[in-house]
Specification:
Distance between the termini: 16 Å
CATH architecture of the largest domain: Orthogonal Bundle
Radius of gyration: 20 Å
Low-confidence stretches: 161-173
Structural class: mainly alpha
Order of helices and strands: HHHEEHHHH
Mean pLDDT: 80
CATH class of the largest domain: Mainly Alpha
Strand content: under 5%
CATH superfamily of the largest domain: Winged helix-like DNA-binding domain superfamily/Winged helix DNA-binding domain
Number of helices: 7
Shape: globular
Strand order of the largest sheet: 1-2
Length: about 180
Amino acid sequence: MKLTKLEEQGLRLAMCLARHAGQLTLAEMAAREGMSEALVASVLHKLRHAGVVKAVRGRYGGYELEHDPETLTVAQVLTSFGRPLLFGCFNQPPADGDPPCVHAGECGLRPVWEELEDQIARVLSNITVADLLNREDQVRQQVTKLRPTIELPRDDAGPLVDRCGCGYVFEDEADVI
C-alpha cells in the first residue's frame, strides 16, 4: 500500500474540517494545513465528487464534511481518490496493449494480496476521521486492538525468525503481527 500525496492531504483536510466542526474556506484550510491553495483545491475537488465534502456557495460559503466525522471512515476518504486500498496487478485489469498475466487463474500470490487487502480495508474501515483527532497514543492503542493475531515462526533462540528475507527480526511478543 502506498499513499499518494493527494490521499494523505485528503485525510488531513477531512480532519481539519472535523476539527473545525463547520465551514472553512479553501484559503483557511490552506493556511491551517500549510498547503498551497492549488493543492487544497485539487484535493477538495476529488473529495467533493466522492461525496466526502460539500461546497457551500455564496458570501459566507466554504467547505464542510458531508457526513458526521464519527461515521466517516479513513477507508471512505482514501477510496474517494479512485484507487483501491492495496494497488497491484491482482486487482487491476491490464493496461491497453499489455498482455494478460500469464499466471491468471493459477496465481499463488493472488490469495495473499487479496487477504492483505481485506485486512487493510478492515482496519481503515474501523478508524473514523473523528478517531484521528485524538492524541497519537490513543489512536495507536485503537489501531493495535485491530491488529490480527498471526503467529510468525520462531527459531530455538526465541525471537521470531526472518523467513521472508526482508531482514527484520521480531524481538518480542509485542512485535507479533
